[in-house]
């Protein structure tokens, strides 16, 4: 498709049209590298950045032996203690359990998007140690997240939401 138009057949009028330039690549999920295998049996297949808030981790493995290991994201060239925890695949901020070739889907919390972070890691918060990580490339052409938080105020004074 090179162009798209909204056309009125009766009046033979073009209400609006859109030209699609040559070589246009629409946003799509992007595959990046797999977890580095630094410690505690961490490994995975290449991660997929599904959209601006969703990270898919295929075949994730971790032995679960660290008491304070979490999924961790932040800014900088390498994982560091200035990062922050993100929820696990169930939406909890609990220490990670053992995994064996599990498919995980992680959602970034709040207003955080993939464009706000440079890495995702499994981080031992007790020892400030990176157990395995993936650097997220800049300039990813991914779809926006379709989940938004909308504050709704009731105009009905006696109703509860």
UniProtKB/TrEMBL annotation:
<keyword id="KW-0677">Repeat</keyword>
<dbReference type="Pfam" id="PF10517">
    <property type="entry name" value="DM13"/>
</dbReference>
<dbReference type="InterPro" id="IPR019545">
    <property type="entry name" value="DM13_domain"/>
</dbReference>
<feature type="domain" description="DM13">
    <location>
        <begin position="1"/>
        <end position="21"/>
    </location>
</feature>
<dbReference type="InterPro" id="IPR052126">
    <property type="entry name" value="Spindle_Org/Thrombomodulin"/>
</dbReference>
<feature type="domain" description="DM13">
    <location>
        <begin position="30"/>
        <end position="137"/>
    </location>
</feature>
<protein>
    <submittedName>
        <fullName>Skeletor, isoforms D/E-like protein</fullName>
    </submittedName>
</protein>
């Amino acid at each position: 498709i090179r162009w798209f138009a909204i056309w009125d057949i009766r009046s033979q009028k073009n209400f609006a049209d859109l030209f699609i330039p040559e070589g246009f690549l629409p946003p799509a999920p992007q595959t990046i590298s797999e977890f580095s295998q630094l410690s505690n049996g961490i490994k995975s297949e290449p991660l997929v950045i599904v959209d601006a808030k969703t990270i898919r981790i295929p075949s994730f493995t971790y032995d679960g032996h660290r008491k304070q290991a979490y999924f961790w994201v932040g800014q900088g060239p390498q994982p560091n203690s200035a990062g922050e925890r993100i929820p696990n695949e169930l939406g909890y901020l609990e220490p990670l359990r053992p995994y064996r070739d599990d498919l995980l889907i992680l959602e970034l919390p709040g207003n955080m998007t993939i464009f706000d972070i440079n890495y995702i890691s499994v981080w031992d918060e007790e020892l400030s140690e990176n157990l395995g990580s993936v650097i997220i490339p800049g300039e990813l052409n991914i779809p926006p997240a379709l989940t938004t938080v909308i504050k709704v105020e009731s105009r009905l004074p006696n109703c509860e939401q």
